[in-house]
What we know:
Elements: E1 4-8, E2 14-18, H1 32-40, E3 53-67, E4 72-85, E5 88-103, E6 113-130, E7 135-146, E8 151-167, E9 171-186, E10 210-211, E11 215-230, E12 235-250, E13 267-268, E14 276-289, E15 292-303, E16 313-328, H2 371-380, E17 392-393, H3 398-410, E18 415-420, H4 425-436, E19 444-448, E20 454-459
Parallel strand pairs: 10-13, 18-19
Antiparallel strand pairs: 1-3, 2-16, 3-4, 3-16, 4-5, 5-6, 6-7, 7-8, 8-9, 9-11, 11-12, 12-14, 14-15, 15-16, 17-20, 18-20
Helix pairs in contact: 2-3, 3-4
Amino acid sequence: MKAVTFSASLCALALLVVHSAHAQTGAPPTDEAAAVAQQKAAAALAENKPTPNSLAAALNAGAQFATGNSQAIAITGGGKIDIRDGNNGFGAAVLANYATSFVQPVAPATQGTWTDTVRNLQGKVRYDRYFGRNVSVFLQVTGTHDAFQATTFRLNLDPGVKYLFVNHPKTKFWGEVGYDFEYDLNYTDVDGFEQAGSGGKVLDAAGLPYVIEKTNTMHSARAYLGFQHAFNKEVQFSAGLEFLQGFGGTGDGTPNIPNGFTAAQVDLVKLDLARTRLNFDALLAAHIAGGVSLAAGFTAKYNSDPLPGKQNLDTTTTLSFIFAFSKPAPAAPEDKCATPPPAVPTSTPSTDAATQHPLDATPTTPTTPPAHTAIAAFVDDASKPVDAAPWVDLDESKEQTHAIAELMKSHPNMTVKIGSADTAAKADAVRAALVDAGIAATRITTEVHPGHTSLRVTAK
């Protein structure tokens, strides 16, 4: 019989390849949807952007149906949203996978059976409180169901501290340290027999059913390293490695012998609450058009001592189309009653195009937009390289100087160049005012150019 395979998706088409190795890990879902949303916006990680307000969201969903000699159904879907509101960051994610296959009968039998092969659901919420651009404290809550890991429900609570070692517009490298509390409701029947994902008892090599505690808790030390790099505004790579080391908990005693059985008829298993877990994920995303990106991802989860009958390594490989959406929050309304700053006098442009300074074109007044607003917009736009930084007109007012100083304080990597017409006196005056406002003199340089007083960002 000819086999026919049909695949379709709601917002995306995903190809999911899963090694049926089931480890007890407690890892949160892979944030591939978030990475694509951030890559689409050509920006840094949403929770690390200096922008006061922002939103990034992504959805992916797919299905596969096979008929003929191979009969299978598989569906996958997920979504993520990240919101930044000043010094507060909020995030939520969900990921679900399900697959079932038809097992052909062996002659002379004629009735086959459908058997589940994947059935899991994971969700995560997170809150970050930021102290500057590079440091935050956070609380992360993750819930997991995975029948093939013998996990009816797992709850992970992860408080910790995050620090960015590299915080450049195109490259991010950060670490997290903290504590992990895990509560497991294991997949057992009323007598404590461990259940297989497709149903029935899990048996040991001698054919005896495993008996485990129905619930357990575990305390662990947690460390995480994350990396993200944008090769350009169309292609981005991200990866993360999580380390969890258990050091105690409850539920590690020898389980009771079920009623009606003897010790020789069961395999009593004592759980290990000092196990080591490693979780790795990587994602390469390429923007295609509009809000659609093509992403290839890989996830590996290792457990040094999984539940009985389970393998110690799970891997997942994905190739998917993902729809992403992102936007900054609306800007504050303009105060039409405010007194506009004085106009800046014009200058005579140079006739030598090869040496013409950008300010030699028709000058603009700093009222639309204000200089510090334009500078902030450029610094926050990761798609614009520093060598494309424009010269921004200054009105040299105390209010504007203070605003620029505050902007530089919130962006520790930012350096600027001040230029003034004919003489360096005005540029030096602005530089001195910024230093008086608390900015290191090494972060400010000056030059003389044929134009009015202006500022240019030299590093983000």
